[in-house]
Design brief:
The chain starts with 18 loop residues before the first helix and ends with a helix. The protein is 45% helix and 8% strand. It is mainly alpha-helical.
Length: 147
């Protein structure tokens, strides 16, 4: 008598879609939350810097631009045969929350050790001989280079 024999579950929505589509949209909500979390934590914008709306709008616009650039770099640079990462995935995080795990866009393509050399009025990056991310970096560079 302490626990009821009947359990009732109900949903309310303003969507005028079949219930299968509503459930599918709700399940996709978790993926959106994952990207939202990655945007906030990996770019370190959990707290906005100002009390002024215009300043915060500018910061969010620049953060979205940087995030999209890093996503493109990750998709193009870390998914090919020259990728330094040891296992296949569909996408890479921008920055790892747990640094020893590896395999993120920033760690694999942007944290490469190189020297900046100026020769003949040109700047060059000199990587070490055994740089694990060099092939992926070079392929991405030539792919994004304007022609």
């Amino acid at each position: 008598m302490l626990f009821p024999d009947v359990e009732l579950e109900g949903w309310w929505t303003s969507l005028e879609l079949p219930e299968e589509q509503v459930i599918e949209l709700y399940e996709g909500h978790a993926v959106c939350e994952q990207y939202h979390s990655e945007f906030k934590t990996d770019l370190d914008i959990e707290r906005l810097p100002s009390g002024k709306f215009a300043t915060n709008a500018l910061i969010l616009s620049l953060a979205a631009f940087a995030y999209n650039i890093l996503r493109i770099i990750g998709q193009l640079g870390l998914m090919g045969w020259e990728s330094p990462v040891r296992h296949k995935v569909k996408r890479r995080r921008i920055k790892s929350l747990d640094p020893p795990s590896g395999g993120t866009v920033i760690q694999e393509l942007l944290y490469l050790a190189a020297r900046l050399i100026k020769t003949a009025h040109r700047l060059k990056l000199r990587f070490s001989r055994y740089c694990p991310g060099y092939q992926a970096f070079e392929a991405l560079y030539y792919r994004l280079l304007p022609t």
